[in-house]
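Moderator note: this is an archived Q&A kept for reference. The question asked for a predicted structure of one protein chain; the sequence and the answer are reproduced below.
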Amino acid sequence: MHSIEDFCCQNSSCSDYGIRGKGNLSFRGCGGKDKQIRMIYCRTCTAHFSERKGTVLEQARLPAKKVVSVMKHIQEGCGTRSTSRLVGVSKNTVTRYAQLSGSHAKKMHDELVAFSPSD
């Protein structure tokens, strides 16, 4: 489990949007099928959102462990059909998570490159 300092406000109209460790966030309850997904509250803009907001797991219907397993198989170079067979999900599910993870990785890359120190 991540600490609250690892998160940032996901409300794009908030003055603290995208700033980690600002002290404006707190955990407020749990959501999801088994009440295992923590909900986050921003004191600056009073927005509530899931700890999964802005991640590949945001609208995931699969258990997190199964999604991570799909991602690990893709990372290791397994094809769609073999990943589907090994993890026990449909080919379309594997394709969907591969696309989601690709766009998420691009956003993360752009964020990290934007804040890289210049040489």
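Archived answer notes: Helices lie at 64-75, 80-87, 91-114.
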